[in-house]
Amino acid sequence: MLIPILHVATGIGGGGRLETWLARIPTMFGAVTPAAQLAMLLGGFVIVMLLRAAVLYARDALIDDLQGDFVARQRSDLLGALARAPWSRAARVPRATILTLLGTESGRVRAALVAVAQGAIALASLLVHGLLALALAPKMALAALAIGLLASVASLPGFARTGREEGTGTGRVGTYLTAIAGNFLAGLKPAYAENVRLAFLHEFDGIEAEMRDSGRRRRRARMRIALAMGLFPAIAGAGLIWFGLEELALSPALLIPILFILARMSHPLSRLNLSVRQFFLNAPAIEAFRSLAADLVAVSPPVSPHRPVPEGPIAFRDVGFRHPGGEGLTGVTLTLPPGSFLGVKGASGAGKTTLVDLLAGILRPRQGEITVGGEPLDEALLPAWRDGLAYVMQDPLLFHATVRANLLWGGLIADEREIVEALELSGIASLVAQLPEGLDTVIGEGGLALSGGERQRLAIARALLRRPRLLILDEATNAIDIAAEAVLLKRLSALDPRPTIMMVAHRTESLAWCDRHITIADGRVVSDALYEEPDHSDA
C-alpha cells in the first residue's frame, strides 16, 4: 500500500491502475490539496493496520482457546476411559504410555492443531493476495498461481511422508525413553547399592543412538525438499519479471506492487507446506490418544443404575478366578459377618491378593458369586460398595504434598478433630505434631520424608477418615515393629462400630488380633476356623 501512496503523493511513477484507485478516494471525501490527500491516504493506511492487528489478536486468541480445549478433552477422555475400564485391562496399560501421552504427546496434539490453524491462515492469506493480484494483473497472477500450485503438488507428498514417519517414530521412542527413565528412578536406590547404574545408561545411550540415526535420515530428506523449495522462489521470480516486462508489457509502477504481492504470497505458500509436514509429524499423537481411549471404552462395562449397599454378611459362593499365568483362586466359599476381623495368610502366589481384589470389586469372579446382604456384588452395586471401602497396601500411595492433603486425598472431607482422632488411632499423631509445619508439612514424593512404618500409619489414618464399612489391610502393617503394631491392631479391633476388616499378613503376632484366620494354598482355602468339609454352604 505504501509504494502506490508515495506515487500518488509525489506524482512520480504513477498512472497505474492501483494509483488511479487510490487518487480517487480522497476526492470522494472532499480532500483536494496534495497535503490533504496524503494525510487521508496515510490515515487510511494506519486504520487498516489497526484493524489488521485487532483481527490477528482475535484470531490468535480463538485458536489458543480451541487448542487448549481440544487437548484438555483428549486428556480427560483418556483418563475417563482408563478410570471406567476393568482393572484387568487398565493394569495392562504401560505406565510410560500414559505418562508420555499426558506429557510430551499432549504438546504434539497442540502442535498438530497449530499446524491446522496455520495452514488455514496460509490458505486464507493466499486467497486474499491472489484476488488482489488478479485485480491488478490477471494474466501475471494466473501464471504465478499456476507455478505455486505446481510447486505445492510436487512438494506436499514428500513433506507429508517424512513428517508422518518422523512423528510415528518420535512417539514410539518417547514412550520407550519414559519407561527406561521411570525404571531407573524407581530402582535408583538398589542401582546404587548394586553398582548397576551404568547398565541403565548403556540402554539409554542405545535408544538415543537409534533415535538419532533414524532422525538424521528423515531430516536429510526434509532438508532436500526444503532446499528445492528455497531455490524455487528465486527462479520463479526471475521468470515472472521477464514475463511481465516482455510478454505483458507492464509498467514498472504496476509491476512493483504485483511483484510485492506475489512475494508476499511465497511466505504463506511455504507456511502451507510446513503446516502439512507439521500436521503429519504430530497427528500420530492424536491417533494414540483416541486409539487407547477407544480400546479402553470397548471393554468397559455398560453403565447400570446404582443400588445402595444392603446390610448383611459378605459371602463368597464357590468363587474362582484364574490369571493368565495360572495363579488365582478356585472354589472359595466363606462368609464374613458385619464387623468381623478376618486374618488371611499363605505363601507368596497362593492367591491372597486375588482374594482381596475380588472382595474390593477390582476383579470379577470367573465362576461362582460374591454377595453382600444377599445381593450380588455386580456393576450396579459396585459404586456404592467402593464408596464404603478403604484399601491400604503394603507400599501406600502418598504424594509430594502436605500431610493434610495426603489424608484428604480423593475428596475426603474432615475437620481438624476428625483428622487428629484418625492420626491418634494409627499412632502417628505425635510425629505429625513434631513436624516443622504440622499437618501442613510436605512429606516428599511417595512420602520419602517418612519411614516405611510411618507411611503405613499415615495411610491407615487416611483409610479411617473414609469411615469404611470394609477395611482391607494388605500387608499394611509389616513395616511397623511388633509392639507398635499390636497397639495399632488393638485400637482397630476396639473400634465401635467396627468395620469388617480383612488383613493379609505373614507374622503370627499380626494375626493374633483377628477373630478368625484362614490359610490359602494353591488358590484354595485350606484352613478356616469356621470352614467345614465337605459341605461349604453354611460356611
CATH class type of the largest domain: Mainly Alpha
Shape type? elongated
Count the strands?
Answer: 10
Query: Kindly state the mean pLDDT as a whole number?
Result: 81
- The CATH architecture term of the largest domain is Up-down Bundle
Please report the number of helical segments.
Answer: 18
The assigned structural class equals alpha/beta
Tell me the strand percentage band: 5-15%
Low-confidence region ranges: 531-539
| Helix amount | 55-70%
The largest β sheet comes out as: 6 strands, mixed
User: What strand order characterises the main sheet?
Assistant: 6-7-8-3-9-10
The CATH homologous superfamily of the largest domain is termed ABC transporter type 1, transmembrane domain
Return the CATH topology of the largest domain.
ABC transporter transmembrane region fold
Rg over alpha carbons: 36 Å
What is the H/E order? HHHHHHHHHHEEEHEEHEHHHHEHEHEE
Number of domains: 2
Question: Could you please describe the fold and organization of this structure?
Answer:
With 539 residues, the protein is α/β, with parallel strands linked by helices. The chain has two domains: 2-297, ABC transporter type 1, transmembrane domain (ABC transporter transmembrane region fold); 314-528, 3-Layer(aba) Sandwich (Rossmann fold). It contains 18 helices and ten strands. It has helices spanning 2-10, 17-28, 34-84, 87-90, 95-102, 104-136, 138-186, 188-194, 197-247, 252-299, 352-360, 382-387, 403-407, 416-426, 429-434, 452-465, 482-493, 508-511, and strands at residues 314-322, 328-336, 341-345, 367-372, 375-376, 389-392, 470-474, 500-504, 516-521, 524-528. The strands form two sheets. It has a six-stranded mixed β-sheet with strand order 6-7-8-3-9-10, sandwiched between helices. A four-stranded antiparallel β-sheet has the order 2-1-4-5, with helices on one face. The chain is elongated and about 110 Å long. It starts with a helix and ends in an 11-residue tail after the last strand. The model is unreliable at 531-539 (pLDDT under 50).
